[in-house]
Design goal:
Layout: E1 6-9, H1 19-29, E2 47-51, E3 56-60, H2 68-72, E4 78-81, E5 84-87, H3 97-101, E6 108-112, E7 115-122, H4 135-139, E8 145-148, H5 150-167
Antiparallel strand pairs: 1-8, 2-3, 4-5, 6-7
GO molecular function, one term: metal ion binding
Keywords: 4Fe-4S, Iron, Iron-sulfur, Metal-binding, Repeat
InterPro entries: 4Fe4S_Fe-S-bd, 4Fe4S_Fe_S_CS, RnfB_subfamily
Amino acid sequence: MLNTAFVIGNPDLCIGCRTCEIACVMAHTNKVLGTEAIKDVPFVPRLSVVKTEDISVPVQCRQCEDAPCAEACPEKAIVQRGQIIYVLADKCVGCKNCIMACPIGAVYLTWVEDKPWQKTAYKCDLCIELPDGPQCVKKCPTKALSVVLPDEIEKSIKQKRVNVVRAV
């Protein structure tokens, strides 16, 4: 059974406005948009809106069941916490193994605030510290982002199998 949740973007709805990136930054810096000058907030979103000629969609951690990023971490600084794969920033040494191991490019490095000589890995954590969940999903003006829960994945798989059987 699958046991991790993740956020997925719908390219048919995404307009590439990057509101999700701003919401992510604000959620993780404990700032309220409008009360701080945006230039004073380090802009390090945990997702990235990818734009091509034909499409735009946010790409972020899929909270992989086998978590190649966690397997690649020599410090065991990436762990499963409930339904998410979480970076323990205080254990991370910034070796970049997780970045190389991530199959979708959803792990990033940022400077450690109180250690300006060191970087740490960071990635989507589904806004684990916030009671109303991922702020990118909540703030998207076109509802292009949604949280996929483990039981929804299982239901979808079962329904696909039923559809295949019915089509035979």
